[in-house]
Amino acid sequence: MMEFTRKVSDVLACSFSSWYPLFEKVTTKSVWVPVPAEVAAYIRSGGTVVSSEATTADTNTDDEEDSVDWEAAEEGADELQRPEFAPFDAELRAAVAAVGGAAFVKLNWSAPADVRWLSVGRALRCQSPEDGCADAGAASADLHLVVRRWEDINPAAEFRCFVVEGHLIAISQREISQYFPHLERDSSSIITDITSFFKEKIQAKFPLQNYVFDVYRSTKDHVRLVDFSPLAPPTDPALFTWDQLTGKHCLRCESAPSPGSPLCLGCASAGGALPVFQYIAGADSIQRAPYADAELPYDVHHLAESGGTAAILQLLQKSQNLGKSDQSTDDEDG
């Protein structure tokens, strides 16, 4: 049984600026911009970087009566001092333009998936620096903001792959909160395509022996690299468990694996070839998505836990009825 511990060298090898030059031809066009020390310090202090050039066109409504004079409301309060980072802003704008004008923005290792619920359409698409959001993780390496060309991704075509001692042992459906019926039907070709891609494009180039990589298989025979991660928590194991990936349990069940194999004797005898592919087999097997707690306000989660779906529906119904009541009052006043 193995124990995977996240090491600094593993984290650095999975930093975008470390692996992108090696795999530029098989991944999405990207540009990375070093985050200046003063910007990183400001973000870590709790600040939010918003360009002075950002417009409010997208957030304004046509009803001027609903507008609020926040300056007047805050009269007497200390003036908010927001530093300007003009050179950094200019670099980001140039980077977005370089990848086509629309981008997905992330840090060296992480992406803002936990705030997706706040964005329009739950997308992470950016068109200017003020759209991007960088978390303030404490990293020993230089911090970079990665600007990747925007692509509309079908979650049914994303897969997380696990490599142990240089061998691809497991593949998982990446989006575990949805059921995609075609995955079972296409499982054989999915395994073949990803395995071929790994052997031809990744295995001999990536410096680590134990790691995770994500791919996007848009159509048959077309696989592209998305990202790398260390093979250790807190990396999400998707539809596998860390007990399975470390060899405590069989990759297909809870039994102990056979010596020298990630599979138990029963699963190996049943035709258990590697890599093992795990996918949601039915709507009743859907799992809770990672960051689900962070993607909705606490009040919504609390309401769901205390009263279930019925309580949420009841709240929505009351809101709808209240809106109708207000409209009715307005009509009478008019």
Automatic annotation (TrEMBL):
InterPro entries: CDC123 (IPR009772)
An annotated GO cellular component: cytoplasm
Similarity annotation: Belongs to the CDC123 family.
Record key words, sorted: Cell cycle, Cell division
One annotated GO biological process: cell division
A UniProt-annotated Pfam family: D123
Record bears the keyword Translocase: no
Lineage: Eukaryota, Metazoa, Ecdysozoa, Arthropoda, Crustacea
Record-given protein name: Cell division cycle protein 123
